[in-house]
Amino acid sequence: MDLGLSGKRALVLGASRGLGAAIARSLAMEGVRVYAAARNVERIAEWTEALPRGFGALIEPVHLDLADIASVDALAQRIHAAGGVDIVVNNSGGPAPASAEEAPRADWVAQFEAMAANVIHLTQALLPSMKKREWGRIITVASSGVAQPIANLAISNGVRAALVGWSKTLAGEVAKHGVTVNVVAPGRIATERVASLDANAAQRTGASVDEVARQSAASIPAGRYGRPEEFADVVAFLASEKASYVTGSLIRIDGGMIRSI
To answer: Per-residue pLDDT for 196 more than 80?
Structure first.
């Protein structure tokens, strides 16, 4: 299927590893020119070298520290000067585990700024060029925790839920300009982040990491963790011309893990 993405331009946040890297790769394989943003641009260069011949040239590593508003503004200005982008994929790292009862205020404030306020600010800066072209895609990577809160990840559950509310509101405002806004919620995808969470759970419970992962996989109807490329391919579809009538949606990519309707 031709997704109609060849020649489009995208910004993918958190692209040094995990879901962000997988999304950047998937878009590049569809002919999208990708600004791959992260603090560690060297890691982006490493995985770019492994792409099939010719596709690596579509990836431009760019530095971004979401905790630093000056870094956010500098990237927005750089992209604006180059003509803007058609697609924005908002993806941020997750905070350290913490309970709702004990997570300190300072952590809430810092994580809300990096994971929500600065992400929203960057998207707002890039939105005018999409509206002018009457075509755009804004896709935000959240977590299954926005639908079914994850124990000991109170800050992630709360901050990412705020992004869901913002996305739904924005979707209603910009649909008339040909811009769609959607949220994707990964379940247990086999990334370094999930491996870290499994290790934390093992330390907390006294079980082995393998046992934690086995029990977690057994709770998923698909019986396994997802692959990053399976997640990324859904994002690529949402970014495509084929998904022009999908907006304001929260789409789960979780192997059936979330049991609610």
So the answer is: yes
Tokens representing 81 are 């000067």
Q: Per residue in 202-219, pLDDT tens?
A: 888 889 999 889 999 999
End-to-end CA distance of the chain: 29
* pLDDT tens per residue, range 44-58: 999 999 898 889 999
Domains and CATH numbers, the chain: 9-187+228-250 (3.40.50.720), 188-225 (no CATH)
Residue 190 sits at φ, ψ, to 5 deg, of -75, 85
Task: Give the list of residues 6+ apart from residue 101 with CB closer than 8 angstroms, or none.
Answer: none
Radius of gyration of the chain measured on its C-alpha atoms = 18
Q: Is the pTM of this model over 0.85?
A: yes
Residue 10 confidence (pLDDT) above 90:
yes
Tell me if residue 123 falls in helix, strand or coil.
Answer: helix
Query: How far apart are the C-alpha atoms of 89 and 32, rounded to whole Å?
Result: 13
What are the backbone angles phi and psi of residue 139, rounded to the nearest 5°?
-125, 125
Cβ neighbours for 131, distance < 8 A, ≥ 6 positions apart: 174, 177, 179
Residue 168 in tokens = 């739904």
